[in-house]
Amino acid sequence: MEVVIVPDATAGGGLIAGAIADLLRRKPDALLGVATGSTPLPVYRALAGLAGEGRTDVSRARICQLDEYVGLPAGHPESYRSVVLREVVEPLGLAEESFMGPDGTAEDIVEACAAYERTLAEAGGVDLQLLGIGTDGHIGFNEPCSSLASRTRIKTLTEQTRKDNARFFDRPEDVPHHVITQGIGTILEARHLVLLATGEAKAEAVALAVEGPLAAVVPASALQMHPHATVVVDEAAASKLKLADYFRATYAAKPAWQGL
After folding, report:
1. Distance between CA 110 and CA 19 in Å, rounded?
2. Residues in the active site (predicted)?
């Protein structure tokens, strides 16, 4: 994996937004996979800024969802569809029709998972998938010991993940117990994977994913198998990387035209 260490979250957001802008110049209708939570917000703000300044054209971009809660009513403000519309689609001025995601309100959730797999395939696949990482090393909602070949499916959240997400709800007990998530195998089919991690709380997970063995107990370690995976971390999240100095030197020596 390519590892890029940046000073802070704002710098990371700007770097990734620039990579997305480069992709959109090459492929204006690129399919961008987005993540939710607080970590990727600097990316979306920076990309909206580039679009607002006329430095990139996002008008034909398409957006797809990584995961979705099961059982939240349509329009619930913390459903991931609502979050993506609010934080990505609307600030970029995109039509809602440009957005695709799994249906967490479906009566037949198994079929909803299969339908989303078909939707992604029919769309030509994801060009760039933005990822976060959980403190336990999960990506999407592929919790530890998820199959590295898994496809989009329903998953039960661990109590740690529910606690991590409780800050977005009025009460901890309001956090759903189940989600639809792209599987690790599905995620690995994206042409470029970009994982952003910030803060000391993510340092152990980042080190295990980047420098540890490939292991289902650390789902993010599956990125080691991808031909084009980039990990962007701030200094705090990089604090447990044994090869941090090597990663800094490698990126500093990289020709600017190569991009991320």
Report:
1. 35
2. 67 (proton acceptor), 136 (for ring-opening step), 138 (proton acceptor), 143 (for ring-opening step)
User: Which are the catalytic amino acids?
Assistant: 67, 136, 138, 143
d(CA 218, CA 225): 13
Locate 61 and state its tokens.
Answer: 């971009």
- Cβ contact 198:13 at 8 Å: no
- The number of angstroms, rounded, from the C-alpha of 252 to the middle of its chain's C-alpha atoms is 25
Please state, in angstroms and rounded to a whole number, the distance separating the CA atoms of residues 150 and 221. Answer: 14
Cα separation, 67 vs 183, whole angstroms? 9
Which residue's structure tokens are 């990126």? 251
How much is the average pLDDT of 225-245? 98
The two beta strands, 192-197 and 229-234, are parallel
Architecture of domain 2-253: 3-Layer(aba) Sandwich (3.40)
Q: Where are the domains of the chain?
A: 2-253
Residue among 236, 181, 242 at smallest CA distance from 208? 242
Can you tell me the distance from the alpha carbon of 77 to that of 75, in angstroms, rounded to the nearest whole number?
6
* DSSP tag of 88: I
pTM of full prediction above 0.90:
yes
Q: Dig out the tokens for 152 from the structure.
A: 């989009």
Cα separation, 166 vs 171, in Å, equals: 7
User: 121-160, pLDDT tens digit by residue?
Assistant: 999 999 999 999 999 999 999 999 999 999 999 999 888 8
Q: Hey, which bits of the chain come out as E strands?
A: 2-6, 31-34, 62-65, 67-69, 99-100, 128-131, 153-156, 178-181, 192-197, 229-234
